[in-house]
Design brief:
homodimer, alpha+beta, Fructose-1,6-Bisphosphatase, Chain A, domain 1, D-Maltodextrin-Binding Protein, domain 2, 2 domains, 7-stranded mixed β-sheet, 5-stranded mixed β-sheet, 7 helices, 12 strands, 39% helix
Chain lengths: 263, 263
C-alpha cells in the first residue's frame, strides 16, 4: 500500500472540502439566513461527508468508511483499510462563531492508525501525521512534547465534568483543576486534540467521544509522544463511543491515577 | 475633542503594536528560547505598554493612562480623557499557544467610554466601537445582538466558578450550566468579551477582572446592545477590580436573578 500517495490524496480532499465549506458558508453569511442556520449546517455536514465518501470510493472502492453522519456503509470491524471521518467537528461553533470547527480524518489499516489529519477550516491550518514518519503543522515538523509538572498544565475540560455527573467522581476533578494552572474549553474535540499534540494544551479529557472525533488525532498523538486512551488507560477501540484522555506523557498516568475515579 | 481623529490614531497605534509583538514573537519562535518564555512575555508586555504610553503622550500629554503593567502614572480619577490599556490580554495563551491573545484599549472622557478596541494580534482581527456611531468587526458593521432563550445560550465561564469558591454559591452556577446549551473558556477576558459583542458567545462571567480587561469591551458592548455590569448589576467603576458579566440583553437580568448568589 502506497501510504505517501494516500496521504497526498487525503490532503487534496481535505483542502477541497475546506474550500467548499468556506464557500457555502460565506454564501450563507451573505444571505443571512439565520433562522435556517441549523438546517444549513446539517446539509453542509452531510454534503461534506458524501464528498469524502465519493472521493475515497473513487480512489479505492474496497476502503471502508466510518463517518459521523452515517452516510457510508455499516462498518463493524477495522479489518483492512478504514477511513474514520468527521466532516465538521464543532457544529455549534460553526453555527454561532464561524470559526473553531474542524475536519478530522484518520486512515487505519487493520486497526493501526496510518494517517491522521485535523484541519482548521477557517484558518486553513493543517495538523497531520504519517505513522512512523512524524507529524507536521502545515509545513513545519512538530516537536515531541516536552515533560512538565502537573502544576504547570493547562487542560481542556468542559465545566460539566467538575459538577456532579454520572460518569466520574467530580470531587476528584475539582482537585485536578485546583492543582493545574488553568483550564480551557473550545467546544470542539478536534481543536482540543490539535492543541494537545502541538503543546498548546497539556491534556484534554472527555466523558464521551466517538471514533470520528479522535481517529485522526490519535495518529498525530503517537508521532509527538502524546498518550491517548480511554479513562481506564486502555486503547480506544474505534468502533464504539468511550471516555477519552489525550495528554502529555509526563502527566497522563498521574491524571488517571490521582484524579479520575469512574463511577 | 475630535473623536474621529483619536479613533484613527488609536487604530494606527494598535496595528503598529500588533506588528511589533508578532515580530518579537516570530524571532522568539525562531530562536526557541523556551526556558525564557516567561521573561520574554513580561518584556514584550511592558515594551508594548510603554509604546502606547509614548504614542499617547505624543498625541496629547494631558491624557491620563491606566495600564495593566503599571508603567504609566498613578490614576485615581476618571476625570478628563483617560486611556485604559491592556497590552497583552491572555498571557498564558501567548506563551503556550501563540494565539488567543489580545490588545484591548478603551478611551474614556469623564468616565464615559468613547472608543473601544479589542485586537486579535495573530489573526489581525479588530473589534471596535465609537460611542453613538456603532461597532465594527474589521470593516463590517456589527449587528445589534438578537434575543435568545437562556436554554440556547453558550456562555464563557471558567470551570473554577462551578466548584466551591469564596465568591459565589457554586450550586447556582451548576444550575446555570445545566440550563444552558454549553460553556466555553478561552483564557482571555478580551477574547470572551469580543465573542459576546459579536454574538459568538451569549454571555461571559468572571469573579474578578480589572479595568484594563474590560475597558475597551464595554464601549463595544453598548453599541451592540450587550449589557456589561458587575455581578450586583451595577456599572463597573473602572478604577478597581470587580466581578463582571457581559451578556446578551435578553439573558443578562435572568442570569443575575436566578443563578448568581454572591457570598
Amino acid at each position: 500500500m502506497d501510504i505517501q500517495r494516500i496521504d497526498q490524496y487525503a490532503k487534496e480532499m481535505i483542502f477541497e472540502a475546506g474550500k467548499r465549506i468556506r464557500d457555502a458558508f460565506s454564501y450563507d453569511l451573505k444571505v443571512e439566513t439565520k433562522s435556517g442556520a441549523n438546517d444549513l449546517v446539517t446539509n453542509i455536514d452531510r454534503e461534506t461527508e458524501l464528498f469524502f465518501i465519493e472521493k475515497i470510493k473513487a480512489f479505492d472502492a474496497t476502503h471502508k468508511i466510518i463517518g459521523e453522519e452515517g452516510m457510508g456503509e455499516k462498518v463493524d470491524s477495522l479489518e483492512g483499510p478504514v477511513w474514520i471521518i468527521d466532516p465538521i467537528d464543532g457544529t455549534m461553533n460553526f453555527v454561532k462563531q464561524h470559526r473553531h470547527f474542524f475536519i478530522t480524518i484518520g486512515f487505519f489499516v487493520d486497526g493501526i492508525g496510518k494517517l491522521g489529519y485535523i484541519f482548521d477550516v477557517m484558518r486553513e491550518d493543517l495538523f497531520y501525521a504519517i505513522e512512523g514518519k512524524g507529524a507536521w503543522y502545515n509545513d513545519s515538523p512538530m516537536r515531541k512534547l516536552q515533560p512538565l509538572k502537573i502544576e504547570e498544565a493547562i487542560i481542556g475540560i468542559n465545566a460539566s465534568w467538575v459538577t456532579p455527573n454520572s460518569y466520574l467522581n467530580h470531587e476528584k476533578m475539582i482537585e485536578l483543576i485546583h492543582t493545574i494552572r488553568g483550564t480551557r474549553s473550545y467546544g470542539s474535540a478536534a481543536m482540543e486534540i490539535a492543541f494537545v499534540v502541538s503543546g498548546k494544551l497539556d491534556a484534554y479529557i472527555s466523558m464521551c467521544l466517538s471514533p470520528w472525533d479522535i481517529g485522526g488525532g490519535t495518529v498525530i498523538a503517537k508521532e509527538v509522544g502524546a498518550i491517548a486512551t480511554n479513562l481506564k488507560g486502555e486503547y480506544f477501540d474505534f468502533l464504539n463511543p468511550d471516555t477519552f484522555i489525550i495528554a502529555n506523557p509526563s502527566i497522563h498516568q498521574k491524571i488517571l491515577e490521582h484524579y479520575i475515579e469512574e463511577k
